Amino acid sequence: MTPYASALLGLVLGAGLASLVLVMVVRRAARQARGQVVSRHHLAEILQPMRAAVVVVTERDKVLAASTFAKSLGLARGSSLGPEQAVALLAKARRTTAPQETEIELENAAGETLRLALRAVPLSNGAAVIIGEDRSEDLRFSETRRDFVTNISHELKTPIGAIALLAEAADSAVDDPEAVHRFLGKLAKETQRLNELVSQIISLSRLQSDDPLLVTAEVSITSVLQAAVNRCAEIADGRGISLSMQAAAELQVSGDARELETAVTNLVENAIAYSEPGARVAVTSGIDTDGMAAIRVSDNGIGISAEDQARIFERFFRVDADRSRASGGTGLGLSIVKHAAVAHGGEVTVWSRPGQGSTFTIRLPLSKKRGDQ
Ligand code: ADP
Predict the structure, then answer these.
(1) According to the model, what pLDDT value does residue 23 have?
(2) Residue 111: pLDDT above 50?
(3) How far apart are alpha carbons 201 and 222 in whole angstroms?
(4) In this structure, which residue's CA is closest to atom 12 in ligand 1?
(5) To 10 degrees, the CA torsion angle through 8, 10, 16, 21?
(6) Nearest atom of ligand 1 to the alpha carbon of 319
(7) In sequence order, what DSSP letters do the residues of 256-316 get, joined into one string?
(8) 122, 99 in Cβ contact below 8 A?
(9) Residue 300: CB within 6 Å of ligand 1?
(10) Residue 239: strand, helix, or coil
(11) Centroid of ligand 1 to alpha carbon of 267 (angstroms)
(12) Is a pLDDT exceeding 80 seen at residue 17?
C-alpha cells in the first residue's frame, strides 16, 4: 500500500471511529437527560416520607403524588385533591399565576384537629404543588402563653393592690404608731409574697425555655434532700410537724443542684402546708426497680382527690385557693417541680388519698452510684 493509500485509510478509519464515539456520547447524554426527568413513581418515593403534607397535581388538578401525611389528612383522596379550601386556594394560585397561602383546620387519623398553613404553588409546566405545614404546636404554644400571661397579671394584681391600700392606710394613720406598725408588718408580708411570685415566674420561664438547666454537674441526691430539709425545718417546727429524712445510698444524677433543691423544697413545703399539726412528713431516696433514682416526699395530711390529682401540676391550679394563699402558696410550686424533673430527663408522679395523705415521687436517671467507676 502506498503511503497516500494508507494515510487515506487512516483518515477514513479515524473519522469513522470518531463519529461512532460521538454517536455513543450523544446517546449516553440523551439517556442521562431522560433519567433526570423524575418519573411519577420516583416522585411518589420522594414525597412519601416528607414531614410536611405535600401534593403534586397535574394541570387538570389530578393528584400525581402525595406525601403520607397529606394522604392521612385527606388532602389527597385517591386522584382528587382534598378539601374545598385547598381546591379553591389552588384555583386562585392558577388564576393569579402566583403562590397563594391560607390557614385551614383538618382532622388527622387520630381524630385530632390540626391547624395547617397551606401554600399552593403553580409550576411552569402547568402542574402545581400544594404544601401544608402543621402549625398546631405553634397555636397551642401561643394559647398557653396567652393564658399564662393572663394568670400572671391576675396573680400579681392581688399583692400589688394590697400594697397600695396598706401604704395609704399607713399614711392616714400617722397619729397612731401602733396602727402604722401593724400596716407596715402586713405590707412587708405582701411584698414578700410578690417577691416569691416573681421569682417563681422567672424560675418557671427558665425551666420552660429551650435550655432549662443553668449548670450541669454531678449532683448528690443526699445533699439535695439535706438542703431541702434544712430549708424547711423551721416552718415544720413552727407548725408542729415532724420532718424526717432517710437517704438510701450515695446516688448521683447529672444536673443543676439548685433547681433540684428548689423542686424538693417545694414538695416538702407543700407536705407541711397541706397537713395538720402533729402530722409526719418523710423525705426519702432510693433506686427504683428500673434503675431510676427516686426521691419521695410523703405526708399523712389532707390528701388530694383523684380528679384534682390530674390538675395539680398545671400552673396556678389550686384545690383550695384560700388555704394555698394563707400558706404563702403561689400555685406554681408543682409546675416548677414538673418542669425541673423533665429538664433532668425524669418525671414527677403523685399517689394520694383524701384524708390519708400524699406521696410525691421525683424519678431521675442515675448518673452514678457508690461503687461505680
Ligand atoms: P401552691 O402554691 O398552691 O401550693 P402548688 O403548685 O405547689 O401550688 O400545688 C398545687 C395544689 O396542689 C395546691 O394548691 C394544693 O391544693 C395541692 N397540693 C400540693 N401538694 C399537696 C399535698 N402534699 N397535700 C395535699 N394537697 C397538695
Answers:
(1) 46
(2) yes
(3) 27
(4) 312
(5) -150
(6) 16
(7) -HHHHHHHHHHHHHHHHHTS-TT-EEEEEEEE-TTSEEEEEEEE-SS---HHHHTTTTSTT
(8) yes
(9) no
(10) coil
(11) 8
(12) no
The pTM assigned to this predicted structure is 0.68
The C-alpha cell 420516583 sits at 42
Contact between residue 200 and residue 328 where contact means Cβ atoms under 8 Å apart: no
Whole-number Å distance, alpha carbon 330 to ligand 1 midpoint, is 9
Closest CA to 206 of 263, 161, 291: 263
Domains, the chain: 3-134 (3.30.450.20), 137-207 (1.10.287.130), 210-371 (3.30.565.10)
Low-confidence winner among 26-30, 119-123, 154-158 (lowest mean pLDDT): 26-30
Q: Is the dihedral of CA 89, 90, 91, 93 positive or negative?
A: positive
Calculate how far, in angstroms, residue 355's C-alpha sits from the geometric centre of ligand 1.
14
Q: What is the 299 CA–ligand 1 centroid distance (Å)?
A: 12
* Rounded distance from Cα 64 to ligand 1 centre (Å): 57
- Angstrom distance (rounded) from CA 229 to CA 234: 9
pLDDT in tens, 293-343: 999 999 999 999 999 999 999 988 999 988 888 888 889 999 999 999 999
Which residues contact residue 331 at a Cβ distance below 8 angstroms, ignoring those fewer than 6 apart?
155, 315, 316, 317, 318, 321, 324
Identity (one letter) of the amino acid at 85? Answer: Q
Residue with cell 439548685: 258
State if residue 304 touches ligand 1 by the CB under 6 angstroms criterion: yes
Max Cα–Cα distance, the chain, nearest Å: 139
Question: Is the beta carbon of 319 within 6 A of some atom in ligand 1?
Answer: yes
Rg (CA), the chain: 35
Helix (H) or strand (E) holding 20: helix 3-36
Instruction: Note the pLDDT tens digit of each residue in 43-99.
Output: 888 898 888 999 999 999 999 999 999 999 999 999 999 899 999 999 999 999 999
